[in-house]
Amino acid sequence: MRIKAIVFDLDGTLVSPELSVDTYTYFGGKAYRKALERLKNGKITFHQFLIEGVRSLKGVKAKEIENFVSKNLEKYLKKGAEECIRELHSEMEVGIVTRNFWTYTKPIARRLGIGYVECSYFDIIDGKLTGIVEYEIDKPEGIKRIARKMNVGLKEIAYVDDELSFDFVGISFLLSPSSKVKNSIKNLYELPLLIKKLP
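and the corresponding structure tokens:
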């Protein structure tokens, strides 16, 4: 198996999930926190959470979200993320697939130098969020679209996530403290060498 490209999940993998929570709580206030609490308590699905969470952001300027993420990104980046991406970039294409939104994801991708991104989108009119989800991504479909854009086969892709793994790619790595998990890595520093060791 020759890996020609690597695709990362975002929250919990390249950045701490607290960045997303803190960003949307800052702009969405009590309504966003309430939706998040309902998700954590199993009262709503992730899809319903997206709808309720985005509704709480109605009227917020997209640029303000981008600026907030850019300003606070440094302290939320996962250890080894920049070094890992830099090293992998010298060998292969790198992408991100996330259920989060482009307005949030854009400054992170820019900071890490990642040009291939598949994500969800806010509905935005005149630079402001309307409170509606324009597009909610399906992760497997997002990976397949990135593969087409990179002009590589699915089995030539490595995927990295902190929760999910997929059988349709060449190999899935799970960012996990447990060595009992198949293809687990404890941190991103390990990843470039593991990729190089693949047959």
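(Above: one complete record from the training split.) The beta strands are 5-8, 93-101, 116-125, 128-135, 157-161, 171-175, 184-185.
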